[in-house]
């Protein structure tokens, strides 16, 4: 069997594992936000427990990447492809950590009546999830236009962040008794904003590895 065929087969398997990890992260983010909306402690704990699975997946993919580098000694585009996967799993693992962080705040808030219905936070989370999915698609398909669109969408996440923070600050000024709850929500939106940054980092790395262009 040709050596090139084996190498491409391994790369395809690597991409499949990357998609699985991305899907797991998207589900964790979905569950974390649903748990927050419904004040579902059981679901929040499930997200926290799943973090070990995400960590193990990162280690397994990292091992596959290093094994490919050692045994196949890839160069040029092939090496950059593997380097992209290594970069992506690191950022994805950190996004998984932030899902856990949000779930821990959900447990803290579980017995409190929310000061208002959650509207913008779930919308912000949905926008972040879309960015995460598209970064992985752009890596696997080498779709630079899609990667660039992810970078551009970070401005939308920043706009959500500014809007929610301003709203929470106004509520705290109006009513001192809600300061603690508003502070907890400030941390939650900060974690979402960082997730958007991680997705943007990944997209910028993909653009660099394919074109050599820093943006």
From TrEMBL:
User: What subunit structure does UniProt give?
Assistant: Homodimer.
Major location, coarse class? cytoplasm
Keyword annotations for this protein, in alphabetical order, are:
Cytoplasm, Phosphate transport, Transport
InterPro entries found in the cross-reference section: PhoU, PhoU-like_sf, PhoU_dom
Family classification: Belongs to the PhoU family.
Q: What is this protein called?
A: Phosphate-specific transport system accessory protein PhoU
Q: What does this protein do?
A: Plays a role in the regulation of phosphate uptake.
Please tell me the species this chain comes from: Vallitalea longa
